[in-house]
Amino acid sequence: MKISFSAATPASNAPLALTVEKDGLDRLSTAQLDGATLATIVATARASRFEGEAGGVVETFVAADGGVRRVLLLGVGAGGEPDYERAGGALTARLLTSGVESVAADFATAGATPKAVARFAAGAAQRAWRIDTYRTKLSEKAKPTLTEITLFGAPDGAEAAWVSQKAVTDGLDLTRTLVSEPPNIIYPESFVAKVLAEIEGLGIEVTVLGEAEMAELGMGALLGVSQGSRRDAQLLALKWNGAGPGDPALALVGKGVTFDTGGISLKPGPGMEDMKWDMGGAGAVAGAMKAIALRKAKAHVIGVCGLVENMPDGNAQRPGDIVTSMSGQTIEILNTDAEGRLVLCDAITWVQKTHRPNTIVDLATLTGAMIIALGNEHGGLFANDDSLADQLLAAGKASGDLLWRFPLSDAYNKLIDSPIADMKNVGPRGAGSITAAQFIKRFVDEGVRWAHLDIAGMVWADKAGATYDKGATGYGVRLLDRFVADNFES
How far is the C-alpha of 382 from the C-alpha of 433, rounded, in Å? Predict the structure, then answer.
């Protein structure tokens, strides 16, 4: 989606969008329409029971130059940045396959702030993303037609604010593509190739480890997950330094299981196809790193993606096996479908030993228990530091990628003690998301601030949202970018 800013008045018959605050129909004004026409549009909106609620849309047609002009009223609620973002998404959702190729949005009299206009543009651009790569029989009416939204009369600073929002949108596009592609297309090595092609020339320092290098480092937990697959595991590290010399202040670590059968502890067949998105944490890290680099963030951040495929062949890891992690701690495998924590623990150990970050945030589609607890409304947050938890919660609210904090304690930690190894990879049925977080916490060095985000219910949606269609949401990119901007930029 092309977003343009213009000082010029659009053609008198061009499709036109106007924003309306809650209960603000009486205040609606625009130089694009005469008084009688505007009054008719307002009357139409009232008859449609439109009140300017955020994301609400009324579409109508008025006479113009011997033809008709399409006019849309977009509700922006209380007029905050998230409300404008919803309005932008609603505009695209309404027009994407309508036959309209472009639309002009009038901000000359809206009173929106520059950041609100930028969020409007972001919502519009993000809602346009879709993947039609493998659809060969789309009808003409189902094909996207809207390619450009022009914002005119925007306040000073709006176009500059859009630059950062565009970076986030481009990062989201990468994440959604990675999550959406089928597992025969995206596997550990092709994930790496796709990301490297997307970030070429952005100034990101790249490290890639194959199975031989990881074996030398003793990464037995991660490699144990991969040993049943014909696809080689990879560790991808992306470092952006916009803050000068020294170690990265922040490490973002993502679980990248590009397909998860459950291994020997095989998942049920129905719904297993969804497990192509079990790399959503790694996808979010890759997208966030692209966004951070595109907007040239004044921060020193490293993103690490642990990439494996979990398959059940004759060489696959078995329940009852014991593996040795890179940290030297041993793990009894009780369930091979509890594999994400095995990937994360070695990736976290690697980044601590090689880059010594003060803060680590890991993201993973880790547990079905998280979906039971929170559904698809919040990601789960676990942290060993209250200030870090507060920063992430605030970034979630500001970005729209919401989080909810869960507890950690010694009582939960004891549930993963093993009688034969240092720990087991699953606890009892109860508190499954918490015991998974307690497992990861055992690999975090003393003095390092750490948070774990269980995003199992957030990376894929069965119904459209304000800024995404059905499918990959890109959850985590906006959250991480805002977290970095608010807390790590110098």
Answer: 10
